[in-house]
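Session log. Operator J.P. requested a structure for one protein chain; no other inputs attached. Running the standard single-chain path with token output.
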Amino acid sequence: MPIIQLPPELFTWSRWRRGGEFLAEKRIVCSRGDLLMPRHRANIKKYAIGYCHADSLICRPKQLHKAIMLWNGTHLWFHITDKEFEGLTN
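Structure written below.
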């Protein structure tokens, strides 16, 4: 399933908080570069539904990053670097 571009207004505070809970549950530590590891990329791809360029976000804008939206029974999101995003889409 392709990861489509979504409008920035879908990336809310409450969905961002759930993104942190998802990462903790899956034992993924973004600051360690875990999202570059194949097993973590596969886990993210399984739930990923869309993305937004993070510098256009109202909630937690960030340069050189994407905000990735996932669905696991509820919407959630978190930041990933542009390099990590390339790994998800290849």
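Operator note: Helices lie at 13-25, 38-47, 82-89.
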